[in-house]
Structure formats: structure tokens, C-alpha cells
Amino acid sequence: MTLLMILQLLIVLGALWVGSRYGSLALGAISGIGLALLVFGFSMKPGSPPTDVIYIIIAAVTCAGIMQASGGMDWLIQIAEKMLRKHPDRITFLAPLCTFFLTVLVGTGHVVYTLMPIICDIALKKGIRPERPCGVASIASQVGITCSPIAAAVVAFVSISNANGFDITIPKVLMVSIPSCLCGLMAAAAASYHRGLDLDKDPVFQARLKIPEQRDYIYGSGATTLDKVIPIEAKRAVYIFLAALGVIVLFAVVPSLLPAWDDKPLKMNIVIQIVMISAAALMIIFCKASPKKAVAGPVWQSGMVAVVAIYGIAWLADTYFSNYMTEMQTMLADIVRQYPWSIAFVFFLVSVLINSQGAVVVAMLPLAYSLGIEGPVLLGVLPSVYGYFFIPNYPSDIATVNFDRSGTTVIGKYLLNHSFMMPGLICVFISTIVAYIITMIFY
């Protein structure tokens, strides 16, 4: 590796690091500075922006945002809350399942913001340390991304893999990612079940209760959606959304149903965009969903932030790696030939930097294929693209800390000793191992 390569790599990493410090749109925008330095300062040929993935995110987020505007998201949250309050003693296991499947359905982990205060409230009223369900539930909300048929990470994996000779479909990816991630989540929940001191034995918590203002803050208010009246239009929007997901999966399983030109069927990335946009239109027409309300909602806004982040990050990474593909193959070929699974560590470390599973897949998967790593191996390590819990600066983790009125869910004094580290590491480690075993058996 030459001094010039190292200098340019430091520019890439520096742009990602600075962007992550500012967060939100800055991650993608500051990546543009790194891109400008590489192209105009070092005359590197610019790579290709990930337009296909961006279009899919826009379509899926628009559909999910319209469903939220119709009140459909409130109905899903209400269903989850009813189950959690019916079995409060099992909340450490049920809470992550709820946040996981909400993400699987909607394609974004930001739906957790509505459910997390409810999880904390149920835990407090049952006398359970809120850190236990809250920490693993926040992790679960992000783990579900690699298990969602409309998430950018899954769609990008399929499209890039097909382009590199690995014939895989969205349902086949989900048949690996869903069971493996559920195994990882349940292992993390089991490890969290007796985590920390019980509230009645926690001296810090008990000291807070002796202060009347703190006691009122902790126990004085309760979050719930059960008092909301869900209109029929909201339920209709959820049915339309689920039907759209069913159509996408059907076309992926039976591609012969798709129109074809010159014996080439319509690509799935186009199918997803058409179905999602059409479903959004049906919700607007038949479910009284306000487009203005959708644009102002957290699902649509967070999705658009993801678009900008992936746009800048993936374009910057592709520019660097495409210009040094030969050198990368020379340096890493021996390692990946002997230990192809070691690419999982690369995926994880990149995710720690760029806070986006979709961006990791778009930026790093082409490089992995160019190194000669086989598709089944890459499918087996797909869960490792989630590593941004490692540094607790992601919005869902920060929000979870704020929602926990007991103060047990924390970002530690030394930054890395936070409430999400243990469940995150266990979940990703177990999920990746299980996924790798599944692919080795069936592929």
C-alpha cells in the first residue's frame, strides 16, 4: 500500500468520521467534501452513485410515510402495546420482537420512537430494570433492516449479487437473515434478562426515588396508545401496505409472472418502486392520508436523511475502491482466500463508521465480490453489516436513553461502556454465525 493510497484512504475515513460527529444529513454532505478532494485534488475517476438503491428507498419510505400519515402506524404500535401489556413479565423478550417485526414491515428502524416509551413504562410498572428490555429492543429495531423485503440493504444485496453471478432473490435472503437474526436477538435478550441490579436493589435508583421531584418524573406519567381511536382508514392503509409487500414477495418468488422483453423479466428493483409508489397512491385516495402530513412525519424524514447519507457515502467509497481495485485484490486476496468469512469484520468496522447498513452493502459488497468471495459466504455474513451501535451516537440509541425515565439505560462515562454494547455484540455475533451455518448447509 503506497503512501498516496494511505493519504487518500485517510481522507475517506476522515470525511466519514467528521460526518458522523455532525450526524443526520451531514454524513452524506461531508462525504461530498471527501469526494471533491479525491476527484479535483488527486484526479481520481469518480465512481458511480448508487441510484438504484436510492430510488428504492424513496419509494419505500414514501409508502411507509403515507401509511403513518393515515394513522396506520398507530394501529401497529397499538397492537404491539396490547401484547406487551398482556405479558409484562416477559417484556425483555417480547419488546425486541415487537421492534424487530415493526422494522421488518416498514423497512426502517425509526418506528421505535413511538414504542420505546411504552416499553419503559411497562418495565417500570412491573418493577423490571428498563435497561434490560430497552437496550435489546433498540438493537432489534436496527437488526430488522437486513430482514425487511423493502429495506435498502436487502435490495442492494440482491441486485449487486445478481450482477456478480450469484443468483439470489429477496425471499431467499430473508430465509437466511430472519431466522439467524431472531436467534441472535433471543440470545441477546437472554443475556439481558438479569442484567444489572434489580430496581429495588439499585442504590442509585433508590436514591433518586427519595427526591420527590425525581419520583414524580419516574412514575408520574405513563405512555400509551391504547386510548387512541383507530379509524377504519388507518386499518385499510395497513392492509394496502401488507398487500404491497405480498405482491413484491410473490413476484420475487415467481418471476415468470413479470413482464419480459427480449426474454429478460422486469428487474426487482423496478418492481419494488412501482408497487410501493402505487400503494402510496391508493392510501392517499382511499385512506384519507395527507401527503403534507407524511412529509412532516418521522418515517419519511428519517428515510430522506438515509437517502442523502447513502448517496454521499457510497459514492465516496466507490470512487476510492474502484480506482484501487487491482491493489486491493493483491493485498487482500490471500487473506480472503484462506478465511473468506473474515470479510465480516470489514463490514462491521465500516458500519461503525458510516451508520448505515444499506450504505455498507452498496459500498463494500462490490469490493467483496471482486476479491473472489463467493455469494453464499457474503449472504452468511450479511448480519455483520450492523455495527453502528458500537459508538452510541445513533438516533434510536440516543432516544432510548432519553425515554428511560429510570436512568438505567445509559451512555457510560467511558463512551463504550453503554447499555447497547453487550446486546449488540451478542446479537451480531450469534446472528452471523447462524446465518453462515445456514448458507453452508443449503448453498
Describe the structure.
Helix content is 71%, strand content 1%. The chain is built from 21 helices and two strands. The chain has helices spanning 3-22, 26-42, 51-70, 72-86, 91-106, 112-126, 131-143, 152-163, 170-192, 203-209, 212-219, 232-253, 268-286, 291-296, 298-323, 325-338, 343-354, 357-370, 375-380, 395-403, 421-442; strands spanning 260-261, 264-265. The protein has a two-stranded antiparallel sheet. A hairpin with a 2-residue loop joins β1 (260-261) and β2 (264-265). α5 (91-106) packs antiparallel against α6 (112-126). The longest helix is centred in the last third of the chain and has 26 residues, at 298-323. The radius of gyration is 22 Å and the shape is globular. 51% of the residues are buried.
Strand order in the sheet with the most strands: 1-2
Q: Which structural category fits the helices and strands?
A: mainly alpha
Low-confidence region ranges? none
Return Rg in Å: 22 Å
In total, the number of strands is 2
Topology of helices and strands:
Elements: H1 3-22, H2 26-42, H3 51-70, H4 72-86, H5 91-106, H6 112-126, H7 131-143, H8 152-163, H9 170-192, H10 203-209, H11 212-219, H12 232-253, E1 260-261, E2 264-265, H13 268-286, H14 291-296, H15 298-323, H16 325-338, H17 343-354, H18 357-370, H19 375-380, H20 395-403, H21 421-442
